[in-house]
Every structure is written in C-alpha cells, then in structure tokens.
Amino acid sequence: MITLNEFTAKLELEFDDMEFGPLLPTTHYRTIKGWSSMHALIVIAFLDANFDILLTGADLKQTQTIGDLYNLMLQKK
Amino acid sequence: MPKHIEYSSDYDLFTEQDLNLFIKTTGIKERRVASNEVTCVDLCYTAADSIIEKFGKEDIDAIIFVSQSPDYFLPASSVILQNKLQLNKTCLAFDVNLGCSGYVYGLSIVASLLQTGYLKKALLLVGDKSTISTNYHDKSAYPLFGDAGTATLLEYDSSAEPWHFNLQSDGSGENAIIIEHGHSRHPINQSSDVLHEIEPGIKRTKKDLALNGLDIFNFALKEVALNINTLVESTNFLKKQIDFCLLHQANKLINESVRKKLKIAEDKVPYSIDFFGNTSSASIPLTMCYKLKDELLSGEKLLLLSGFGVGYSWGSVLLKTKHIFTNLVEHD
Question: Residues 6 or more apart from B125 whose CB is under 8 A from it?
C-alpha cells in the first residue's frame, strides 16, 4: 500500500509545471494561491487513474489537506 | 465552421497561470466563434449546401436537425432548412433537442428510419452555436465552447454490415449543464438578466449556460468507458480491431482519462479540440473532417464514436465505413 509521503510525492508530479512549491501531507491544498476547479479535476483524474477511485465534488469538499485526500482514498479503496 | 477565431491566450479573465492550466487540462488553444447574426441553422445550411453541391439532393427523403440552439421556439429548424435547401416537400423533417451526445443519437435515429426501406437518403444536420449562451465573465464556460454546424448524408445500403448502438440517459444530471431561464419552467423575467457572481472569475445570469465541471467529469469517468466496453462486448468485434475511436471533444483531461480506461492507443483517438474547443454535438463529425479526411476516404474502417454530456445523455456506436468523403467548409 502506498504511504502518505509516497502519495503526496506522486500527486505533486501532477502539478509539476505549476508554481505551488513542494506539497506536504499537511498542505491545505484548496487554499494554495491560484488553486481552481481545474486543479480539482486533475486530483479526481489522478485518483481515478492511479487508485481506481472516483470522487465526486462533494467528496472533495470534505477534504482540506493532502493527508485528508490520502485518508479518503484509503476509505474508498 | 465560422471563420472567426478566438484564441485562449486573448481571453482577458485568464492570468498566465490560468491560461497554462486551461490549455493543459482542456487542450483548447483556439475556437471558432460565429458572429451575432449567424446561427447554427446557418452553419448547418452551409455544410449541407456543400454536400448537395457534390452529391445532389433528389433522393433526400429526410432531414433531421440535432441541436440545442435552434432558430426559434417554433417552427422547427429542420423544416426551415428543408425550405432553405430547396428539398422536396415529400421530405420528412424534425428537430432533436440533444447536445454532446447528439451525433450518435442522430445516427441511430437516421439508421432506424432508413432501415424501414421507405426512405433512400437522409440528411443529418448536427451542431450548436454554444457561444450564444456562454457569458464572457464566466471563465468556467466561456473559453470552452466553439461554434460549428455539420451535415452528414446517409444512404441505405442493404449490403452494409449492421451498426451497433448503446444509448443511455440519466436525468439526475439535469443541473450539471443547464440554461435555467428562457423556456417553460422559468420564462424570461426581470431576474433573468441579473449578473450573479458564483465565485471569483465566474459571473453569469440565469439565461447563460451554467456548468458544474466536477459533476460532469465524475459522470464521464463513471459512464463513458463502461458504455463503450458494454457496446463492444455485445458485438463480435474486439477493441483492438477498432481503427479509430472518436470521442466527443469535451476536454483533453476527460478524454484522455476515458482513453486510458479503454486501453486504446493514442494514435487511434484523434483530437480536434485544440483548434475548435468543445463544439457540442458537432465535435465528432468535425474531428472526422479535420483529422481523418484521407483515412476515411481510403477504404474500410471500423469506427467507434462516443458522445456524452448535457442531460446526462450519452451513447456510442460501432460501425464500418467505406470511402467516406469529408469536407471542412468555412462560413463567411
């Protein structure tokens, strides 16, 4: 099973051309400057492609940090 | 398609970061936008006129217009087009109100009609002038859509192999893509023109197209590949036999996610969204014209077409084509 740190590093690759700076498990991803609904689409695509988990907009709204996303992934797995 | 081009890089509401992200996720670099006086009927007329010029119009017995941007509440735009194109009065004509799934549904309707044996040829006119209903101040919708109208001439061939369809609908998605005001449920009233700020960068009125991108994305990931796999499994074909898979040009992230789920190679899934944006029901035939002109003309091809979106409505068709002539025409 992927660890939280591995999950965070893998997700960061999806945003490698963005100027977010390093992502951490504690990063409140939705408050990152410049975060938009397009980034949310990338997160949903990332979880679907890598973990076969399909999140809704409502699911995403329950999460604040990368750690929350990871835990949600584990719950849905 | 209209001649006028709008570039994503010229859109005022985008910061540089917005633009880069927009192009990365949607793929859209430019779109064709019709002028105020040009409607979808005009675009489809231009396309149909070009077909008639090459193939004639004598045996056309049916004209079906699939669009969500007709000229009027009534009469039906298909009937107006019958007259504009000077088709026989024996020609049957009706409109179908569907968006992104419209081309596949249109093919299904035409195939059913032709299969009766009473009609020789049918003209399927499909497209939308989506830019009439997107608000410039809504960056979640305005830069996505382009305008296009298409015409497909179909003739019954008793020796042709069957076409295989899988058509679906789920009205629980009615609010995911919607124009709320302007029809019977919410006729135009004083509140229809009030500009609401939904979030920074997204302002629109109730007369404008509203999109819930996350819900649409979720729907597409859940349903489209499943629909296609179910279709293919119901036939004697294998996915690896498909020459080209033409997906509705929704956005690149959605389409690539679907393609990867289907495990179909990149070179079998052509894109036109880079240059035309999301052109609603026109996107599949537009992609055929833009990317596969020579391939479709050269010989027999097994095609998988899949349209999905507003409704939700979605469907796919697996069909063989032979020596299909395609042509891109610009509308002045």
Answer: B44, B47, B48, B63, B64, B65, B66, B67, B78, B81, B149, B150, B151, B152
Please report residues of A whose CB lies closer than 8 A to that of B140. Answer: 37
Interface residues of chain B, partner chain A, Cβ below 8 Å: 15, 17-18, 20-22, 24-25, 140, 201, 212-215, 217-218, 221-222, 253, 257, 260
CATH 3.30.450.80 fits B5-155, yes or no: no
CA distance B151 to B43: 9
User: What is the domain partition of chain B in residue ranges?
Assistant: 5-155, 164-175+210-322
- Whether B164-175+210-322 and B5-155 are alike in CATH topology: the answer is yes
Q: What are chain A's domains?
A: 4-76 (1.10.1200.10)
CATH of span B164-175+210-322: 3.40.47.10
Q: ipTM score of the complex?
A: 0.88
Cα angle, residue B51 at apex, residues B243 and B166 outer, rounded to 5°: 40
Estimate to the nearest angstrom the gap between the alpha carbon of B290 and the chain centroid.
14
Residue B94 · residue B277 · CB < 8 Å: no
**Average pLDDT for consecutive 10-residue bins of chain B (332 residues)?**
97 91 95 97 98 94 97 97 96 98 98 92 98 96 97 94 97 96 94 92 94 93 97 96 97 95 96 97 98 94 97 97 94 86
